[in-house]
Structures are given as C-alpha cells and as structure tokens.
Amino acid sequence: MLRPRVIPCLLVKERGLVKTINFEQPKYVGDPINAVKIFNEKESDELVVLDIDATSEGREPDYQMIKNLAAECRMPLCYGGGVTTVEQFKKIISLGVEKVAISAAAIKNPDLVKQAADVVGNQSVVVVLDVKKRRFGSKYEVYINNGQQNTKLEVSELAKKFEAFGAGEIVINSIDRDGSMQGYDLKLIKHVRESITLPITALGGAGTLAHIKELINCFGIIGASAGSLFVFKGKYRAVLINYPSQSLKNEIVRY
Prior knowledge:
Number of strands: 14
CATH superfamily: Aldolase class I
Radius of gyration: 17 Å
Shape: globular
Order of helices and strands: EEEHEHEHEHHEEEHEHEHEHEEH
Strand order of the largest sheet: 1-4-5-6-7-10-11-12
Number of helices: 10
CATH topology: TIM Barrel
CATH architecture: Alpha-Beta Barrel
CATH class: Alpha Beta
Largest sheet: 8 strands, parallel, barrel
Structural class: alpha/beta
C-alpha cells in the first residue's frame, strides 16, 4: 500500500554535510556517514543525498563517497549530483543506490531521462526541479546550477515533459523556502500536482512536523522531504540529527 514518505535530504559539499539558506551560505553541520547511521537507527523512510557542487563544477559523481553511503544506508537511498550519462546511472545503481536524481542534465538533455528509464527502470529516475517564483507575477520558473541560472522554463510544463519522457518521480524544491523553516510552498506543490500524476516529493521550507502534516493533509500520498528540520534543533539552530519516532511519524502521515 502506498503511503506518504518522510524523507531527510542531506546536502554534501567537499564530502561534508552542509545546510544552505536560499541555496547560499553553506554551513558545515557534520559528517554524512554519521548522519546516515542515525537515520538508520530512527528508521527513516528514505534518504536523499545531493552533492551540490558536482554539476556546477563540471565533475563526475564521487563514486567512493556514494559507495560508502550506500554500504551504510539501510533505507532506500537517492543520490544526485554530477550525473550526465546513462553509464553513470548504471554505475551508481550498481553501488546499491535505489534512485538517481538529475536536474540540469535533464533540462539540457531531456532524452537522458528516457534513456536512463529504459536502462535502469522508471522507478530509479528522479528529476529535481529547483524553483523560484517570479518577483512580479505568479509564474514559477526553474533554475539550474545551484540556483544561479534561470532557465525561464515554467515548472509545471517541465514536469509534464519529464513525465512523458519516463521519469519515475519529480522533486519540487523551492529555492525561496530553502532553509527558511517557515513551511512548504503549498501553492507551488498544488500547481505541479494538478499537472502530473507522477509521485511528487516536496522540498524546501519544512521547519516543524506540523508543516509535514499540513503538506500530507493537503496532498495525501506525497514525499515530504526536509533538510534543516532534520539537522537542526531549536530556535538557535543547534546541530542535532533527528527524525520523528515511528509512533509520532504514524500520526503525521495519517490523512
């Protein structure tokens, strides 16, 4: 039976775990392997790990880091960062990763989505759309390269395109809400949800478990992903890797 998923998202920079605000000011918050061990103990539904510099630096994924993470991880793992070819998809899946996420590569070469889906299966192909709302008007546009480059492409149109090309999941990541801990952009998620039937994961803005519950109450079976919520604690943002207990999570995911 399908059910909502509560998913920590870890950002990696130079093999260290970091957290950003609006895709800027990366703050070192620890070692990714230690975080994975804690999420194992907490029985996290899934885990997303994104190497935030690989694509912008034009380098390949760090396969040794991915191998180490996959060997430690006891939950489904999604990796993203620097993936541009089907061969890289295959290699990452062979290391024990369940899903591979792409963003800029999918926008620059949409055929990559179809080619990868044909080789590793739709369920393993995730497209991440980093989104900002236009300063004037209501249009949501997709950015690439750590939010530095505006593609001028509208998010729902891109989501429909990638659904047609065979993506198995779409991650909608709000740049405006990143690190804000003020709640998800529900209008953005609704806008995309009305356009596609694919599984969606929302990312950007969760600061409390109530925000996750609100998202699930609005959209039902959805992925509720967060970074700051699961690495910080309290109003002073003390670093503390955390995840709700199974009983508490079961209360959250009811809708």
